[in-house]
Amino acid sequence: MDCGGVSSLQNLQALSALLSTQQEEQEEEDCKVTASARLGPGQIGPPPKKDKEESAANVKKYSKDIWSEEEVAEGSQYDDLADLRPQPEYEIILKQSVGTEDLFLGLSGKDPSSMCCEAMLVKIKLPDTKATDVVLDIKEKFLDLRTAKYKLGLHLPHPIHNQEGKAQFFSEREELQVTLLMKRPMDSINMQ
Questions:
Q1: Would you say 140 and 160 are in contact if contact means Cβ atoms under 8 Å apart?
Q2: Fold of the CATH domain 72-190
Q3: What is the pLDDT of residues 67-84, one digit of tens each?
Q4: 3-state class (DSSP) for residue 76
Q5: Which residues 6+ apart lie within 8 Å of 4 measured at CB?
Q6: What is the DSSP code (8-state) at residue 157?
Q7: Which portions of the sequence form the region Disordered (predicted)?
Q8: 71 in helix, strand or coil?
Q9: Considering only CA atoms, which of 122, 127, 126 is closest in space to residue 142?
Q10: Under DSSP, is residue 176 helix (H, G, I), strand (E, B) or coil?
Q11: What is the DSSP string of 100-149?
């Protein structure tokens, strides 16, 4: 029995040593998993600012202002909730100038994507409206249209040159078409 006891004691110690190394390896793997598991979208980029830093960054020019001009969407001054005129149907179509060198040879590097578009066409259906009844105001990112029967305040999907557009009213279709040239400040970089 003594031999069995020594043998079993040695077996227990060997088993204990084997298990302790497996536990240490398991703990190391768990540490690696938890370290990588803690990474998420919140860890990308600079750490978030502290409250004191944010309050210092948001110091306003006038203490009674509740928002800055940058926070107010362009065209919000035209929103009138008491005005019950309906919004007319409209459609926005992006356009690009394509020549034969683009179509057949692909020399300019243009593709059919919206990134290569230079103009925006806004078609507005205005039933029972005359061209003289239309009041149109265009800002860099906002189109405001008013008639006796309709009102449209449209936030444009892309900044435009508000002085370089054109508008045509087609009486037979009762439709106003407004063509606006888009501002493309990165074209010199993107179109190379």
A1: yes
A2: Immunoglobulin-like (2.60.40)
A3: 776 776 665 556 667 778
A4: helix
A5: none
A6: S
A7: 20-60
A8: helix
A9: 122
A10: strand
A11: HIIIII--S---SSGGG--EEEEEEE-TT--GGG-EEEE-SSEEEEE-SS
Amino acid (one-letter) located at 79: D
Closest CA to 89 of 159, 156, 179, 176: 176
Predicted TM-score (pTM) of this structure: 0.55
Helical segments of 38-103, H only: 51-57, 100
Give the model confidence (pLDDT) of 138-168 as tens digits.
Answer: 998 899 999 999 999 888 888 898 888 899 9
Length of the chain: 192
What's at 49, amino acid-wise?
A: K
CA 73 vs CA 54, 83, 145, 162: distances in Å: 22, 19, 17, 17
- Amino acid code (one letter) for 42: G
Domain ranges of the chain: 1-33, 72-190
Answer whether 125's CB lies under 8 Å from 89's CB: yes
Q: Which of 183, 185, 136 is nearest to 160 (CA)?
A: 183
Two structure tokens written together for 157: 């999907």
